[in-house]
Write a structure and sequence with these properties.
heterodimer, A: about 325 residues, 11 strands, flat, B: about 110 residues, mainly alpha
């Protein structure tokens, strides 16, 4: 921050406590990142003015600063937000559940903003009189949020599941094929009841996908590490590979090596609206035999005499001797 | 996976928050926690939203319906930005000629409007 907290707030040393509060409020209004989501400099400005305000709002620290006992950074403290950032960083995420009840289709209905206020009046009974007469008073219900954990395979394949609401009733949820971790499903009309004939709110279900011990998802591709035996690596051959839709046969080329990646085209995730499915990428890993018998050992010792090769050659290139 | 916090942990994480204040935000529908058999849960975006609510409540003495109106406007601003970004992204995928025509039309509209 600047060296002079008074200057940061646009004030001089003669400012009263009321002046400080007033100046601070005005600056927060123009610099709070959540009130100015498109201004990249807002966060830095807010930090400066907040540090200045923190120093000056307390008469004791203000006196100490004025007398030179502490410098401007003396009161600067680590940000409260513990690295969470500002709300604007989350508000752009897909499936964001605010504003309540708004969807892309109903572009900017200004009445939404008052819906929840009216709904609360309806709940507390004060909405029955006044300008909102019984006859034409209707407000849509509240959207409710739920979280749901889905096993990996059910998320990529799609499935049906059920969540139990706090009231004890069940809600059937259709998991669409290829659902992503953190995605929010909107179940129309399964939220809170509307008032005065208003439509019910929606249930917003945020889904977390439980990781799978073998499969990983990268975009629409499935990644799997497949152990192969030494002889399969050297001689090549067909091996069985698990995919998200069952077992398929994969041809290992002769002389395959650890880290080599083979592609099973179209065996990845096929999201509901995507034109085509992703691939499954199989990364090979050579597993040595569990027991090295005398025959194998004798063969390898012999083989080494005439065929030795150095797979580490590249790793030493350019290294000092 | 998204990590959700219990009500008690959330009050600790957001320093300025009290149980009373949190209940007031929830009953005013300024914040809608995720419901679970263990009670209400709060994700990272809820925590950030709580910080914003505390900022507005503390610095501007906003509460009740006034806070609701401000949050409603902020939410609408974000929704509008999201839609604008969606339109922009869709346009980016179009050929140059289409983008040029749309761009010219926007500029012409601004001059007239």
């Amino acid at each position: 921050m600047s060296d002079d907290p008074y200057a940061a707030l646009g004030l001089t040393k003669t400012a009263t406590a009321a002046d400080i509060k007033k100046a601070y409020r005005k600056l927060v209004r123009t610099s709070h990142p959540d009130l100015h989501p498109d201004d990249p400099k807002a966060e830095g400005r807010l930090k400066t003015i907040t540090a200045a305000h923190d120093l000056l709002k307390d008469p004791a620290t203000r006196t100490r600063f004025d007398s030179g006992e502490i410098d401007a950074s003396g009161a600067e403290r680590p940000p409260d937000r513990a690295g969470r950032g500002f709300y604007r960083d989350y508000a752009d995420a897909p499936g964001q559940s605010y504003p309540q009840g708004q969807r892309f289709e109903d572009f900017g209905d200004p009445s939404d903003i008052f819906a929840h206020i009216l709904r609360q009046r309806a709940q507390s009974g004060t909405g029955q009189s006044g300008p909102f007469g019984d006859s034409d008073f209707s407000v849509p219900g509240q959207d409710l949020r739920f979280s749901l954990e889905v096993p990996f395979l059910e998320a990529v394949r799609g499935s049906k599941t059920r969540i139990t609401l706090p009231g004890g009733e069940n809600l059937d949820v259709q998991i669409p094929k290829g659902l992503n971790d953190g995605q929010t499903l909107r179940l129309r009309g399964r939220g809170g009841p509307g008032y005065g004939g208003g439509t019910a709110g929606d249930a917003l279900v945020t889904v977390s996908v439980r990781p799978h011990p073998m499969f990983r998802r990268e975009g629409d591709d499935i990644v799997l590490t497949l152990p192969i035996s030494m002889d399969e690596a050297i001689l090549g051959g067909k091996v069985a590979v698990p995919t998200i839709d069952g077992v398929v046969s994969l041809t290992i080329p002769k002389g395959a090596t650890s880290g080599q990646i083979l592609r099973l085209r179209g065996r990845g995730v096929h999201p509901q609206r995507a034109a085509k499915a992703g691939n499954q990428r199989v990364e090979l890993r050579i597993a040595s035999p569990p027991v090295i018998d005398a025959n194998l050992q004798a063969f390898m010792e012999n083989w080494r005499k005439t065929h030795s090769y150095d797979p580490r050659k590249a790793a030493f290139e350019g290294m000092p001797e | 996976m998204t990590v959700f916090m219990s009500e008690a942990d959330t009050i600790v994480a957001v320093g300025r928050l009290t149980s009373t204040r949190l209940q007031a935000f929830i009953s005013a529908e300024l914040l809608v926690p995720v419901q679970s058999p263990q009670g209400p849960l709060f994700g990272p975006s809820d925590l950030a939203r709580l910080e914003l609510l505390c900022d507005l409540a503390e610095h501007f003495d906003l509460e009740g319906d006034a806070l609701g109106v401000v949050m409603g406007l902020i939410d609408q601003l974000h929704a509008t930005r999201q839609r604008l970004h969606a339109v922009t992204r869709a346009l980016e995928a179009e050929p140059f000629e289409v983008r040029r025509r749309v761009g010219l039309r926007i500029v012409a509209g601004q001059v007239k409007g």
